[in-house]
Design brief:
193 residues; alpha+beta; Jelly Rolls; 2 domains; six-stranded antiparallel β-sheet; 2 helices; 15 strands
C-alpha cells in the first residue's frame, strides 16, 4: 500500500508541475503567412495549447537555423515579435542567436507584465556564449499574456531560436489530482481502523 501511495503522490506532483517543453522556432519553412502564425502544440496530458506568434514590421521568416522578421533576423526597434498562448504557461528560458556584446546590438525582452530586459553579452542571467536567457525562477504567464521581442536599439540584429515553457495544469486537473490523493489517504486511514 505504501508503494501505491508513493506512486499516486508522484503522479499528483507531476500534474501540478507541468512538463517542460522546448519549442524550436528554426527550420519552420520559408516565409510565414503574413504577420500572424497560429499553431497548436504541446499536447500535455491530452490538452493541446495554441501558440500565436505575430510580427510588426514585416512577415515572419525562418530557415534552418534562424527565425526572425523579413530576413530571418529581428532588426532594430521597428521589428517586433509577439508570442502568446491560450492557456497559462511558465516561461523557463529563451535561446536567441547573434546577440551582440552591448546594448547597441542587444535584444529587448518583455515577459508578461514585467519590465523589459535588455539582453546582451554580460547581462546577469544571460549567457553571451550560448545566447540563452533564464530568469532566476520561471515566470508565470496567464492565458493571453505576451512575450515580446524587439531590438534594444536601432542597430540591433538578432534571431529567435528556441523557447522552453512548462504548461500550467488546468484547475480541474489539479483539483481531481488532489481529490484522488485525499481519497487514497482516507481509504488508508479507514483500513487501519
Amino acid at each position: 500500500m505504501r508503494k501505491v501511495l508513493i506512486i499516486l503522490f508522484a503522479i499528483g506532483a507531476a500534474c501540478f508541475a507541468g512538463a517542460e517543453v522546448i519549442y524550436d522556432y528554426t527550420g519552420q519553412g520559408a516565409v510565414f503567412d503574413g504577420t500572424n502564425w497560429v499553431q497548436v502544440l504541446l499536447n500535455d496530458n491530452g490538452a493541446d495549447i495554441t501558440m500565436t506568434v505575430s510580427s510588426s514590421g514585416g512577415d515572419m521568416n525562418s530557415n534552418a537555423s534562424r527565425f526572425g522578421i523579413v530576413n530571418d533576423y529581428i532588426e532594430g526597434t521597428a521589428e517586433i515579435l509577439t508570442i502568446s498562448f491560450d492557456k497559462a504557461v511558465d516561461f523557463v528560458s529563451i535561446d536567441l542567436g547573434a546577440v551582440g556584446g552591448d546594448i547597441a546590438d542587444g535584444a529587448s525582452l518583455t515577459i508578461g507584465t514585467q519590465p523589459a530586459i535588455d539582453l546582451y553579452t554580460g547581462v546577469s542571467g544571460f549567457s553571451g556564449s550560448t545566447d540563452v536567457y533564464t530568469p532566476a525562477s520561471p515566470v508565470r504567464l496567464s492565458a493571453g499574456e505576451t512575450i515580446v521581442l524587439t531590438g534594444s536599439s536601432l542597430s540591433s540584429s538578432f534571431d529567435l531560436e528556441k523557447m522552453t515553457l512548462a504548461v500550467v495544469p488546468e484547475p480541474a486537473t489539479a483539483a481531481l489530482s488532489a481529490l484522488g490523493a485525499l481519497l487514497v489517504w482516507v481509504a488508508r486511514r479507514a483500513s487501519r481502523a
